[in-house]
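2024-03-11 09:14:02 INFO worker-7 job=invfold-0412 stage=load source=structure_tokens
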């Protein structure tokens, strides 16, 4: 039987005590479960993470969002983002630590992955897709060069991420 750690916050809405308590935006009473099963035959243990809450919680593994009841196998060096503020790197004892450029890029990559996730999730709605298409067509009609159009749409995408985060804070 695997060891199970739960991640969430402890408070009046908490469904049970959690093994790992985090407080912040995107951290509901029970965000996820982390299951650990030692494997003596392999160098890595069998570690999985499963999102257990609805859309109010945010959980990313190496930049990929997990939906409710999604499972992801974790391995040494993986990045896990809980909510909007907590980014961890999994370290499995017995594995070599990253060196040089690999070590310095771990959280740089996480930042890029989270921005990419936020931009794609913000623009997931069909109305946003229509608006982007309209803006692009209008800018091209006005003879704005393709590079400037791309730069403008990227700036709008980054602003949408900030709007999404502000809306989450206000709700």
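2024-03-11 09:14:09 INFO worker-7 stage=emit residues=171
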């Amino acid at each position: 039987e695997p060891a199970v750690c739960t991640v969430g916050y402890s408070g009046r809405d908490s469904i049970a005590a959690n093994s790992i308590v985090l407080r912040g935006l995107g951290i509901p009473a029970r965000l996820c479960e982390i299951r650990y099963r030692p494997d003596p035959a392999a160098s890595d243990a069998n570690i999985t993470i499963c999102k257990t809450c609805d859309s109010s919680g945010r959980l990313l593994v190496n930049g990929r969002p997990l939906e409710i009841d999604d499972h992801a196998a974790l391995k040494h060096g993986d990045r896990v983002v809980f909510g909007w503020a907590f980014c961890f790197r999994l370290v499995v004892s017995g594995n070599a630590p990253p060196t040089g450029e690999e070590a310095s890029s771990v959280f740089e990559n996480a930042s890029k992955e989270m921005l990419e996730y936020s931009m794609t999730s913000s623009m997931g709605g069909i109305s946003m897709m229509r608006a982007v298409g309209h803006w692009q067509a209008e800018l091209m009609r006005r003879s704005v060069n393709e590079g400037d159009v791309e730069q403008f749409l990227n700036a709008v995408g980054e602003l949408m991420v900030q709007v999404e985060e502000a809306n989450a804070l206000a709700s």
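2024-03-11 09:14:09 INFO worker-7 stage=report msg="Residues 63 and 110 are 7 Å apart (CA to CA)."
2024-03-11 09:14:10 INFO worker-7 job finished
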